[in-house]
Amino acid sequence: MKDSNRLVKSLTYFSSQRKILLQFLFTALFIGLGIWFFYHEENEIIQVTHELQNSQAPIVLIGILLAALTIISHGYMYKAAFAALDVKLSFKDGAILFLKRNLVSVFLPAGGVSSLAFFTQDIEKTGVPGTKIHFASSVYGFTGIVSVVIVAIPVFMHGLVTNTVNGNEWIALFSVILLIGLIYLLFINVTHLGWSYRLIKRNYPAIEVIIGDLNTGIISRANLFKCLFYSVLIEVWGIWQLYIAANAINLNLSLMACALGYLVSVLFMIVSPFMRGLGAVEFSLTYTLTRFNLTMVEAIAVTALYRFFEFWVPLIAGVFSFMAKANRLILRIMPATLMFLLGIVNIISVLTPAISERLRLLSNYIPDQAIHASNYFVLFSGLLLLVNAAFMLKGLRSAWWFALLLSLGSLIGHLTKAIDYEEATLAFIVVGSLFYTRKEYIVKSNPQLRKIGIQTALISMVAVLVYGIIGFYFLDKKHFTLNFNLLQSVKYTLAYYFMVGSKDLVPTGQFALLFLDSIRISGFLSLSFIFYTLLTPFVLKKVSDNSVMEEAKKLVKEYGNSALDYFKTYHDKLFFFNTERNCFISYKVSGNFAVMLEDPVGKDYNTKRNCLKAFCKDCFNHGLHVISYRVPKESLGIFESVRMKSIFIGQEGVVDTETFNLQGGEKKRIRNAINKVTESGFKLVVYEPPLKDGLLQKLKAVSDDWLQSMERQELVFSQGMFIWEEIKQQTVLVAENEEGKIAGFLNIIPDYANNEGTFDLIRKTSDAPPGVIDFLHVSLFEYFKQHNVRYVNLGFAPMSGIELPADITERSMKFAYEKIKSFSHYKGLREFKEKFNPNWYDRYLVYEHDFELLQIPAVLTKIIKA
Fold it and tell me: DSSP letter string over 15-28?
């Protein structure tokens, strides 16, 4: 039974993590393809390295200078794109914006487009609306695609005349032209409120706010054409970079051939969804160049050098652009980038012929088999380093250990494969950077999944080894022309399990090939699985015991000052205490978010700030993002002290019982509602605790009827639910008739704000007389007034109270609140509370990073469920 439960839990976990798992397996598949490619193309790549080693350094330097000109042009292109919308952006800021976005685009799906949403904060701080920033970025991206077509059409026409353009390249060109046309038509349709606008509006109400901003904006044609000019200039620099790459290797390639090769590669990069065309560009450009009388080796060499100018130089410059404003992000990015570079160096080093003198010297001390093994280890570790670099960016401690072991292994491997001290020096630098930044990598991996991964990998490894050894040992000689002994069976099984293979093992038929592939696939899957499980972040999940809850309740009684403090010690909460145990934070965990309720409970500002700071650090250590729900305006300073951001989410209504009355025409509806209740034979009955079980049974029936008739479920976090033992100890106000029938009730809960009272549940039966809820509210005001409590907290009205929206987020919220049907219940809730003339107090959502706003609605929906 325990095993079946464990299996169910494992399956549930993998189901919830299927997206991450599929991404990892997809990455692992490319590693396998990389191993296969390097293994089968080793001879050609060795010849390519010879070509590159003989390249002319002065001409290579010119290519690097052209790469710098390209970066400069991108900076001016961004400046012109922003100027087209009357936004001032300096060349320096434009160039840095390009370098940063270019760097992250490598790691994003559809990176060239999706990267345009990043690094807007610095510009927003200058007062530029987010809408204009994104629109200017869209102008930049759109003109970048248009310029390709502008340059491509005459070049392709020339290629048509000279018969150097094939069908696939025409398809790529027409695909981009079609893409431009679709983008333009979609933009026109949306801005003119057509069908596409209506379709988007259903799922994204804020589109109306955005379209309003776009339609009021005036685009400067002069600056738009200036942006297009710089974009065309960038295409020219790209063509010349390819021409320089060919000349550096002493190859005579015409400028027109370079133009065609460049444009084909760019077209394939635009339509490629992964890593900015990495792979697709190399393949298309190499294939195109072979049609201009270049051998495959020469074409690959030119492509490699061109990609160094076009791809790697801006990428490296992007890393240094982050250094312009050194912060903790640099400490996270630098080791990952160096490790990525080491992975590339490892692969190239293995495929490059060793220096013969060093190899002869090394063979005097190390057996040839050990040298051969070192080569394969360096190759395999290089591929793993490329993948591990992405996990390093997440701050995973296990990724840091992997990086350290792979880097140390690379250092030793370079020395033991050919005394390659140059590559070993880079590995040493990576090891040093890892030690220097070790404190940045503190996110833990999932221990349960890690255990499962190790167990599964070991079991599969043993199973595959047994399968392979027995298979080799008993296979007929005709399949491999070799009679295997036990030692050979073990040797070849290990070689194919770790995907190294063996050149001296020659299969003679389909059965033998399938047998070898089965070992390779099994090894690839088990190694990928263990790599995945070791690098999966650990999501913190705790259960608070009764002693901790009692400790929190004592602090609430001593330092509480809010109507929400009662719910901070509710059964659904977790607690974080400071070292002195005189301040705590109440929160829940959903996914990789720790959601706080309001602000910390503690003695004073400094105590709360230090507790929050410690909590944020603890969450960071466990890979959790911190957000806080319903924070009062006066508490925002505590969160701002730890560099958190805030967004207005609604208002809380508080009634003054001294000024509240039922006089005047505006209160006529309330008076009529109360009269209908009393005319129906119901009156107010106050029950003080402890409540009798018979009464609780009636209240429970009312609560269940209300939930069923309203088609709702119990919600928690910032409100309570019907808990028998809790309500038994609370004062309850009931609308009850002479026969003891209860039409509705509300329960009074502790309110720790000064001179304030509040309630939690207010529920009625489906056949209750109209106005019973109004009757209970007015009765509550009178009850507190009689008990000398001046204020009554009516609770939260989400999304309401925005009079003058400050930014696009607030404009979107105001629009949804006022006009979107699915949000009408929020508007109705506000209108109901408004008739009691409360004073309204702003409440905020606090968060760490802007991109979290996309996930927060789903997170909040999960945490409020009982």
Answer: HHTHHHHHHHHHHH
d(CA 166, CA 291): 10
DSSP 771: T
How far is Cα 180 from Cα 144, in angstroms, rounded to an integer? 11
Locate 302 and state its tokens.
Answer: 């030119």
Written as six digits, the tokens of 41 are: 């193309």
Helix (H) or strand (E) holding 632: strand 625-632
Comparing CA positions, the residue from 313, 298, 304 lying closest to residue 279 is 304
pTM: 0.53
Q: Please tell me the distance from the alpha carbon of residue 547 to that of residue 552, in angstroms, as a whole number.
A: 9
To which H or E segment does residue 627 belong?
Answer: strand 625-632
Could you give the dihedral angle defined by the CA atoms of residues 258, 263, 264 and 267, in that order, rounded to the nearest 10 degrees?
A: 160
Question: What letter does residue 310 receive in the DSSP assignment?
Answer: I
**For the chain, how far is it from start to end, CA to CA, in angstroms?**
28
Cα separation, 709 vs 765, in Å, equals 8
Token code pair at residue 211: 């379209």
Q: What token pair was written down for 17?
A: 């993590």
- DSSP helix/strand/coil, 598: coil
H-helix or E-strand spanning residue 39: helix 18-40
At 677, list the tokens: 């209740």
Per DSSP, what are the bridge partners of residue 445? 537
Q: Can you tell me the distance from the alpha carbon of 703 to that of 526, in angstroms, rounded to the nearest whole number?
A: 53
CA angle (758 as vertex; 754, 760 as ends), nearest 5: 145
Of 23, 108, 35, 77, which Cα lies nearest the Cα of 223? 77
Quick check: bond before 109 cis, omega within 30?
no
Quick one: tokens of 738?
């002479």
Nearest to 797 by CA among 837, 858, 763, 840: 840
Q: What is the pLDDT of residue 27?
A: 45
Give the 3-state DSSP-derived string for 362-403, with helices as H, strands as E and coil as C. Answer: HHCCCCHHHHHHHHHHHHHHHHHHHHHHHHHCCCEHHHHHHH
Q: What gap in Å lies between CA 284 and CA 266, rounded to an integer?
A: 9
**pLDDT for the residue numbered 630:** 92
Cβ neighbours around 368 below 10 Å, total: 10
Handedness of CA 526, 530, 533, 536 (dihedral sign): negative
Confidence label for 686 from pLDDT (cuts 50, 70 and 90)? very high
Q: Which residues touch 539 (CB under 8 Å, ≥6 apart)?
A: 446, 589, 591, 592, 622, 623, 624
Query: Is the Cβ–Cβ distance between 447 and 471 less than 8 Å?
Result: no
Q: In angstroms, rounded to a whole number, what is the distance separating the alpha carbons of residues 737 and 735?
A: 7
- How many residues comprise the chain? 866
Q: Which residues pair with 839 in a beta bridge?
A: 654
Separation of alpha carbons 112 and 275, rounded Å: 9
The 3-state DSSP class for residue 465 equals helix
Phi-psi region of 293 (alpha: psi -120 to 50; beta: other; left: phi over 0): left
Q: CA-CA distances (angstroms) from residue 424 to 214, 355, 407, 536, 664? A: 55, 15, 9, 30, 87
Report d(CA 643, CA 620) in Å as an integer. 14
What is the number of other CB atoms lying within 10 angstroms of the CB of residue 234?
21
The alpha carbon of residue 784 and the mean position of all alpha carbons in its chain are separated, in whole angstroms, by: 48
Sign of CA dihedral 183, 185, 190, 194: negative
At 704-747, the pLDDT tens digits run: 999 888 877 887 888 888 989 999 999 999 999 989 899 999 99
Q: For residue 105, which amino acid is it?
A: S
**What value does the mean pLDDT take over residues 173-180?**
61
Question: Three-state DSSP class for 765?
Answer: coil
Provide the token pair at 763: 């529920």
Which residue, chain included where needed, has tokens 């988007």?
A: 200
Q: From the CB of residue 221, how many other CB atoms can be counted at a distance below 10 Å?
A: 9
pLDDT at 691: 93
Q: Which residues contact 68 (CB under 8 A, 6 or more apart)?
A: 313
Tell me 851's DSSP state.
G
Average pLDDT for residues 647-669, to the nearest whole number? Answer: 89
Give which of 35, 29, 4 is closest to 531, Cα–Cα.
29
